[in-house]
């Protein structure tokens, strides 16, 4: 297959494709679309994955007639992977499930929201601030993962809440809680950082029974 190229500009691309932006890498694009780097390289016949260009259009979903299940990025050997990313596509991301119990969240950190949820390329929101900015638990719960075994998320915390909810906190500089620990809403759990990322920020996700939810719809106005 010939790599799909497009003239520079902001023309929309079709479903299953992505236009390369400044700062993108194949690894970053694969992570954002819940695919493996190998799949992106194969679908686009990339002879040099490090040589993608701004404006280039890449296929980020399986071509017609191939398996549609997405492949989660593999963790390093010997590290237990949290089931934050489902094996199957969760493209049916929702803003608020109609059958979901209520959950009361507080903002996990201060700063500017630099990327919003779209349920496809962004499964959460990104909040930027200075390194070391405190990160707090958005709701009470139990830490079910604390580590850096999921590539692309850096130092990651995942907290399980009542009602089938999970929150995830990625790219932290320092983690202050451990797996199995119970945390209170508003309790400091980490410091903001840029682990496995190109800028200092918190990537924050909210999931209900494995499906992405727009956390901004559950957070109080500020």
Automatic annotation (TrEMBL):
Q: Name one GO cellular component term.
A: cell outer membrane
**What is the official name of this protein in its record?**
Peptidoglycan DD-metalloendopeptidase family protein
What organism is this sequence from? Answer: Paraburkholderia acidisoli
What the entry lists under PROSITE patterns is as follows: LYSM
Q: A Pfam family matched by this chain, by name?
A: Peptidase_M23
Domain LysM stretches: 16-60
UniProt xrefs under PANTHER family: MUREIN HYDROLASE ACTIVATOR NLPD (PTHR21666:SF263), PEPTIDASE-RELATED (PTHR21666)
Protein family (similarity comment): Belongs to the E.coli NlpD/Haemophilus LppB family.
> Cross-referenced InterPro entries, in alphabetical order?
Cell_wall_metabolism_enzyme, Dup_hybrid_motif, LysM, LysM_dom_sf, M23ase_b-sheet_dom
Write out the coiled-coil annotation as residue ranges.
Answer: none
| Gene Ontology MF: a single term | metalloendopeptidase activity
Q: Where is this region: Disordered?
A: 62-94
């Amino acid at each position: 297959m010939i790599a799909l190229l497009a003239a520079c500009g902001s023309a929309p691309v079709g479903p299953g494709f992505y236009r390369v932006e400044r700062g993108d890498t194949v690894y970053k694009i694969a992570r954002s679309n819940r695919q493996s780097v190998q799949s992106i390289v194969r679908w686009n016949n990339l002879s040099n994955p490090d040589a993608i260009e701004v404006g280039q259009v890449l296929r980020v979903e399986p071509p017609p007639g191939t398996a549609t299940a997405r492949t989660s990025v593999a963790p390093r050997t010997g590290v237990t992977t949290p089931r934050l990313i489902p094996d199957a596509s969760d493209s049916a991301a929702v803003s608020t499930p109609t059958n979901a119990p209520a959950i009361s969240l507080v903002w996990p950190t201060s700063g500017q929201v630099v990327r919003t949820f779209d349920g496809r390329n962004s499964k959460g929101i990104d909040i930027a601030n200075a390194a070391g900015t405190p990160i707090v638990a958005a709701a009470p719960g139990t830490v079910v993962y604390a580590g850096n075994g999921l590539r692309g998320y850096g130092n990651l915390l995942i907290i399980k809440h009542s009602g089938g909810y999970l929150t995830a906190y990625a790219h932290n500089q320092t983690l202050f809680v451990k797996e199995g620990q119970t945390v209170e809403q508003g309790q400091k759990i980490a410091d903001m950082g840029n682990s496995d990322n190109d800028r200092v920020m918190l990537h924050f996700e909210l999931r209900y029974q494995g499906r992405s939810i727009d956390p901004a719809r559950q957070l109080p106005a500020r």
